[in-house]
Every structure is written in structure tokens, then in C-alpha cells.
Amino acid sequence: MSLKDADAEPGTQSPPPEAVRKAVIASAMGNCIEWFDFGVFSAGVITSIVGTVFFPPDEGGSATLRSFALIAAAFVARPFGGMFFGPLGDRIGRKRVLATTIILMSGSTFVIGILPGYATIGMAAPLALLAVRLVQGFSTGGEYGGAATMIAEYAPTKRRGFYGSFLELGTLSGYVAGAGLVLGMHVLVGDEAMHSWGWRIPFLIALPLGIVGLYVRTRIEDTPTFQKMEQAGEISQAPLRETLLNAWPMIVKLICIVFLLNIADYTLLTFMPSYLTAYLDVPEVQAQLITIAVELAMIAVIVPLGALSDRIGRKPLLITAAIGFVLLSWPAFAFMQTNHGLGVAAGYAMIGGLLVLMLAVIGSTFPAMFPSKVRYGAFAIGYNISTSLFGGTCAVLVGWLIKETGSNYVPAYYLMLAGVVAIGPLLVIPETAGVPIEEAGNENAPEPVGSGAAGKA
Length: 457
Known about the structure:
76% of the residues lie in helices and 0% in strands. The chain is an all-alpha fold. It has one domain: MFS general substrate transporter like domains (Growth Hormone, Chain: A), CATH 1.20.1250.20. It is globular.
């Protein structure tokens, strides 16, 4: 199924299909660039190289943990970015803010590729790298909420799940592109060249990607929902205050749900490649191939799952994932302990299969949890608080706990805990499949319409 297969429904006042497709592509590109960076940064070879290039020898723990600490540091800035860019997007528009965030994200990744290392400028190297990561985290804090809001407010009501899934298709594609590029370069130029100069190339590529993304984003109009609010004079002049006063109960629910999403996301996409090599002694190339293969499988099913949610609702997929993480995380990691390639791949695929159930629908679920006036800000604040607390710290915390306890099952236990935390909020949030986005998140929002779990017309 492609974007061209989902035209606007007859009888609706949805934007023209071509405008919807442009908005989806423009939004997904930002997510693609963000996770291209993660794909590069979390690749086993890059993780260890960055930890040695920018830090003094034998200080601050292993090279891998240093790099994970840098990943975590960027997340400190994300809530501040969410609180700045989110309400700003509710006041001046989604498009203008997203044009800013995409160039900041890609530019920061590019700068990492040209920074001198510790051998050249001493302690200024890790400090400069930290500063760049903080800028990157700040801009990323405004990216995801705006991109999801852009798609949700452009998509036809009955196809919001289908279109929303392309946001996370961008995530997976960016990660695969980054990890695949690192793997290909490592094989092509060899270990010595990779440590000398080759590691910089993937970071440098982010800038032209960002320029393309900026061009695409400047070629679209702001969302129909925002334009209607603007014409009606309904734009909040104090969106941050209004968000914090009125939307906090739903923000708390979002934080709990995103707790599971982040633990699963950053365990699978950021921590697992190094986990396989450092703790299970899987060769680097094999670990990267397994990772990429699972990601490609997720790419293949994410859009059909998003379309499925338009028929049966978002909550069935989300609740299935949460329960699955509680019940299947330990068996998945038990498969990985077999030290057999097929066992490792099977365990990895189990976690990936549960994660993709969530990824397929969060782009259509989370924006619809909030009313239009504060949608961008409420989403960005809740999402980034949870991401900062739990996503950014995931790799460091899990790595440290494995080292302290000697148990390779720590990631499984963390996933099980996150699943338990998320189940309650998932049960009580409203089902929004089939609810027009202009009405979603309001106290008087209508019951879902459509078919299956989404209701009946």
C-alpha cells in the first residue's frame, strides 16, 4: 500500500490528496533525519569510536558507556525544546516551527562530523560535542510533536491511521539508512580507516538530507485545522499556560504510555546493537545485519498495521503490545542467550514485532488525545518529558544494571515494568479512530465512527 492508494474520501472536505501526501512526506522526513542520527550513533563501531575520539583515555568508563552518556545528555534538553517549540507551534503555526527544527537537527548532526577530537583540542572536544548534542536535543524536542500533529491534521478522518503510520516509517527508514551506511562503510574501508576518518562521513550526510527536508517543508501550507483556528480567531495567546492548566491529566497519561514506547524503542534501536556485541559476544557485522533485518521487517508491516487501526481502532493494537511486553520480553531475551544466530534473531524479532504494533498507531493516537488549540504543545511537553526521563537514560541505566547485577536479562525486566505501567492509561484513554481531528481531545468529542472497534457509522 502506498500514499497514492489512499485518496480523500468522497463527500469529505479533506485537503486534496496531493496536499496530504506532501504533508506526510514533509513530516516523515524530520523523523527520518532524527533517527538517521540514532542509527549512526548507536551502531556498535561508531559508538566505540566516538567514545575514544572525544574523551581522554581510560576515563569515564568504557568507550561505549561514554557514547551512551552523550546520547542521554541530549535528552536533557528535549523537554525544554518541547516547552519552547510546542506552544510556539500552537501560536504561530506548525509549518514555521517544523522548518526550524529540521535544519537545527540536521545541522547539529553535521557539526559532529567536523568536530576535532580530544587528541587535537583536549577537553574542549567532549565539551563541544556535549554542546552540539544539547542543541540537537533541544530542536528534536519540537520535532516529533509537530510532525505528528501535521500529519494528523492533514489526514482524512477515516485514514488517519494509515497516514500516521508513515511518520514511524520515517523513523525506521532513517535508522536503517544510518546503520546500513555505517555497516557498508565499515566493510568497504576497513577498521583502520573507519577509526581514522570514515566515522565522520555518516554524520556529514545529515546536512544535505536536512536541506532537502527544509525545501519540502517550505513547499506546503500550514494544516487545515490551524488555518481554520486562525481565521476564526481561536488561536491561544498563552498556549503554554493553557496547556499546563487544562491538559495536564492527559499529559500524565501520555507520559506513562510513552514510558513503554521509549523503553522499547531505545532498547531495540539504540541499546541492542551494542548489547549483542558487548554482552552476548555477537560479531559486530552479524549484530548489525540482525538489527537491519528486523528493522526491514518492521518497515514491511507498519503501514498495513496503521491501515488496520482505521478499521479496528488504535487501542486494540496498543493494549496488545503492552500485554505482549509483559508476557514475552523474558522469553525473547532467553532466545538471545542461546548465542545462536537464529535464536538471537528470533528474540530480537519478538521485541520488534511488539514495538511495531505501537509505532504503527502512535502518530494517529497521540495528537488526537489533545484539543487543537494546545495539541502541539501538550503533545510535545508530555512526550519529551517521558522521553527525557526514560528514553535517553535507557541505554545508560540498562548497561549499568547489567554490569552491576551480572544479569543479561535486565532489559527484559525493564520492558516488563514499562508494559505494566502503560496498560492502565491505555485502557482509559478514549478511542479516537474515526473521530474528526478538529473534535478529538475535546470533552464533548463524539463517539468513534466507522467500523470494527472504532464504532459503526
